[in-house]
Structures are given as C-alpha cells and as structure tokens.
Amino acid sequence: MEGVESTAPQTSGSNIASSSSQTIISQTVVENESSLNTSMHAPSTAEQTVANKVPSGQIKSKQQEWTVIEKPKQFPLFFPIAILPGQNSTEKKNHAYRQISDVSGLKSYIIATMKGIKVVKATYETEEQAVKVTQREIVKNNPTRFGKLDGISQSQDNQSQYELRIWDVPLDIEKDLFEQYLHTVGKVVSIKFNLKQLYYEVVVVFADKALEQRFKTEW
C-alpha cells in the first residue's frame, strides 16, 4: 500500500553480520586453545637450556652407574677340641684361647661341629693375623696347630688311625693271603708293599688306633 513502510526486519544484512561475528569468535577460541596446548606440552626455556648443555650419552651413563659393596674377607681357623686339656668344652675352649689371646684381629671365637668333628673356630680379620695363630703351639708336645678345616679333618683321621710297618717280607710272599690275614687283625684302611732291595716293607694303616697296644703286647 502506498504510504506504508514495512517494519519487518531485514534478515539478510543481520544474518551476514551475525555470521561474521561468530566466525571471529570461533577463530579466537581456536587460537586460544592452540596457544594453551602449545604452552602445556612445550618444554620451558630453562629445561631446553639444560637439555642442550648435557649430552644424551652422559645422562644415560649416569643411569647405569652401580655402587658395589664388597663383603670383607674373613680367615677362619679350626682346632679339634678332643685333644685340648680340660674337663669340659668350656675349659678346653679357654685353654686354646689363652695360647692365642695376644694376637689381634679376632672377630669371633666359638665351638662348632664341622664335618662331624667338634672344633674351636677362631675367625680373624687378616691373613697375616691368621698365619701367626697357625704357628702357635696349643697343646704342649703336640704338633697339632690351628689350621684350615681340611687340614684339621686329616689330622683328626691320622690321630684315630694306626700305622704298622712290617720289615723284611719275602718277595715271593702270597700277597692275597697276607692281605686277608691283615684284615682279620682289624679294619684296614690301606696296605702298601714297598720294595727294599731283596725284601718288601709293608705299610699297613688300621682304622683303630687301639691296635697299637695290642701289637706291643703280642708282637
């Protein structure tokens, strides 16, 4: 109608302005999020400086370093308690201690059973100290000394055995029959025939030292 103006909003211009505004806001949000993500994941300037100064190989080598703690060496010595003078184990132990008490470096001093043998066990800090003890006479007129366990075992075996030497045995002796006879005397550990010119020297080791007295009275 003539003279009447339309009051309806002009949607085209308004829509363009609104769309442009939304585009600007969206770009701003995206830029802010991108900046935030970058700042969260990127290393700081100080971290970058340290990383650049320390070579990667050096960092790896530090992680592989180990501190090795060595166990201090000890030097144990043993003495068979059976041959020590005394009425009981305590007296025997004390007797042995009096012979070695002036040697320094004693870590422990106990009575123990090793390989079926009851012994006094003395442990020292250094090998030099242990050597000094092995040179001490513990029982008067007895050659047994403090020593390693293998030596004590052998010494104990020797003390419980009896060795017999038989001289001038004819070379034509029936060895089998002679050995059978020796086995009837007692438990035999070993028999050895040593050639001595025109005769044998027969060395017999018996397991029972008590046979020594028997041979003294019967032979």
Do you know the CATH topology of the domain at 75-159? Alpha-Beta Plaits
* Radius of gyration (Å): 48 Å
Mean pLDDT: 75
Q: Main sheet? A: 3 strands, antiparallel
Helix run count? 8
* Structure classification: alpha+beta
In the CATH scheme, the class of the domain at 75-159 would be Alpha Beta
Low-confidence stretches: 1-21
Which percent range describes the beta-strand content? Answer: 15-25%
SSE pattern: HHHEHEEHHEHEEH
- Strand element count: 6
CATH architecture of the domain at 75-159: 2-Layer Sandwich
Q: Name the assembly state.
A: single chain
Order of the strands making up the biggest sheet: 1-3-2
What is the assigned CATH homologous superfamily of the domain at 75-159?
RRM (RNA recognition motif) domain
Helix content: 40-55%
Shape from CA axes? Answer: elongated
Structure, explained:
This protein is an alpha+beta fold. Among the domains are: 75-159, Alpha-Beta Plaits; 161-218, Alpha-Beta Plaits, CATH 3.30.70. Helix content is 45%, strand content 22%. It has 8 helices and 6 strands; from the N terminus they run αααβαββααβαββα. It has helices spanning 11-41, 45-53, 56-63, 89-100, 127-134, 149-160, 175-185, 211-218, and strands at residues 75-80, 106-114, 117-124, 162-170, 188-196, 199-206. The chain has a 3-stranded antiparallel β-sheet with strand order 1-3-2, sandwiched between helices. A 3-stranded antiparallel β-sheet has the order 4-6-5. A hairpin with a 2-residue loop joins strand 5 and strand 6 (199-206). The longest helix has 31 residues, at 11-41. Mean pLDDT is 75; it is low at 1-21.
